[in-house]
Amino acid sequence: MTATPGLIPRGARNPGSQGALRHLNQERLVEYLLANGPSTQAELARGTGLSTATVSNIVRDMAAKGVVATSPVTSSGRRALLVQLTDTGDIAVGVDFGRRHVRIVLATLGYDVLAEEQVALEPGYDVLEAVAQASALLDRMLVAGGHDRQAVLAVGVGIPGPIDRRTGTVLQGAILPEWVGITRRELEDAFGFPVVVDNDANLGALAEVTWGANRGERNLIFVKIGTGIGAGLILNGQPYYGFLGITGELGHTPVAEHGVICRCGNRGCLETVASTSVMLESLGRSGATTTSDILRRGLEKDPAVLRVVGDAGTAVGQAIGNIANVINPELVLIGGPLVGLGDALLDPIRHGIRQNAIPIIAGTTTVRVSSLGDRAESLGAAAIVIQGALAGND
Amino acid sequence: MTATPGLIPRGARNPGSQGALRHLNQERLVEYLLANGPSTQAELARGTGLSTATVSNIVRDMAAKGVVATSPVTSSGRRALLVQLTDTGDIAVGVDFGRRHVRIVLATLGYDVLAEEQVALEPGYDVLEAVAQASALLDRMLVAGGHDRQAVLAVGVGIPGPIDRRTGTVLQGAILPEWVGITRRELEDAFGFPVVVDNDANLGALAEVTWGANRGERNLIFVKIGTGIGAGLILNGQPYYGFLGITGELGHTPVAEHGVICRCGNRGCLETVASTSVMLESLGRSGATTTSDILRRGLEKDPAVLRVVGDAGTAVGQAIGNIANVINPELVLIGGPLVGLGDALLDPIRHGIRQNAIPIIAGTTTVRVSSLGDRAESLGAAAIVIQGALAGND
Question: For residue B220, which of A39, A248, A326, A355 sits 20 to 30 Å off, Cα-Cα?
């Protein structure tokens, strides 16, 4: 007999809720179809243990929503109904707002990228103007691809700031103060589509286990080092959102006991010593003014840049080490504009982890760069729409 | 449309695994029976969406294992089979080894406590001797209650140290160095029963959501402040074990930049400033030599004790604040021998959390003492056996 973390503690779920039950059963059918391809209703029932009545009810529903298509076939000499996940031309849109860019990806429910574009935004941009720009870009991409607006299921939007999931509102603490207070509703008005909002680092983490090389990873931290430093978590194989949805605020780990006061009000937070803006301030005398300068000079082994990246990386690693002691991840993925530096960035991070994590944790936590580069957040934003559609939310 | 953290990312599960599928379906039946009481097979099929064939197969299996009992009844004039979770006299044993005690609880699968006893252990006890003492105590408790040894399903054992779940071995870092290297197999030999081993703080957390006032809580940290400081996590409604099972090592959060070297090899860990042993060292001149002294004098408002508890509590709170920024728990429960101090302990912890957590996290995280006091770990140890039995592991 072994421990069974899998069994939900009593009362943690409400098994009596018909909606929740239907949702669970539908998830199971979708998973089966993703794993096994087109299947007859009989195969679905055998493969999932659901009754044929349950299967045919849910299939009818999903077919009405266009999530699956059904076609009559003959199986072992009998008439049967073949069910397959549709590629009806439905489009999931992922939008990633950064500090200086917006990136948009169009994808199918089968995780195929149809189009992908990025445009620069002025630093300190007006948020609603940027959203209007993004909406115009999306419209152009749809027209260019010959896609009907009706095909768009929803727009997933990644924002560099904490999101209160109770209300879909961007909270104090966003990298761009202008984002604070923006609601999902305002974004829906601007895009003219249903919108799902999430934090950019959460979406980066989700992208890694859906699109990336780390598909199927069960315990992973995605750490984005940019103007802000945030983390997205995959725990027990699922995106983790905690109580309010404000998770992964790694940038506010105190790392400098007598450091400066952070914009959050606390002292010596990681962001005050390791964000790309602080790196650029430190490098003021060396003439580096953008993260591209840091990247280029780092690759040329400029000692000033390597020192700054090393100090910042060590601090990031220390903060990760604290967290690793508690959540024991298998994998830490680093994202953001500096990942092209490779080991020049990763080695200091690993050093910082060793300083703060207990030896067995430090020794078994793998640190790599994101497999998706600057596409991670927008792909994650599309993934959240795809997952919502496959789960039959509406 | 909303985001769906509930849908497992592609590949994260293997829906093709028949064992995993059967396990999932069995969990669902057990949950239904826990929520709805005795039910006919037809009701189970309707209530879960499983086919009647699947239900009757799983019920037959569970009946053979004694997890459920079946009895023929008449329902709407038809013959039907009533299924109920059994109280066949099966006993789950929970054993909690502390630094100075071992506590044993006998419980039914229905979470009823049959017997509960605690005996003192000599500080610095020999581990195998203590295990033999516990085994003898368990035997006496079984005899005293008139319970057949056959009735014992398994013994859950809580140990104050990290456990490698791959091997069931106690790792370096255990509060009592003698525990290091002890394996589940050795405990099974000593007790003469199947054994499940887990970390004491993990079991404390599990007890809170199974036996305690916090049943159903989805995101909770249980922090045990004793000779060591460890945390157990309930995330998304389930006990969280991470990659290797070594989670919640809160005691090794660095909180003193120029502090002393910890037994883990790092500098300034929380345990070096806030464990009960360090509190007692600080109080050396005041004549307090046990945690009971701290508790008693703290309740008498002795200023030296309040200062030491205040400093330690603040440091614990700072470490919790770091973690709360990342996992955004709804609830933090404090356990260990000092919880009788109430707000004299909790207020400094809350203060520390406010220092290190961003305002919205600090403002929405509730801090309370454990609802189960010194029973938490042993009840959690029994709960892990109960959950294993209900999930049909063997």
Answer: A355
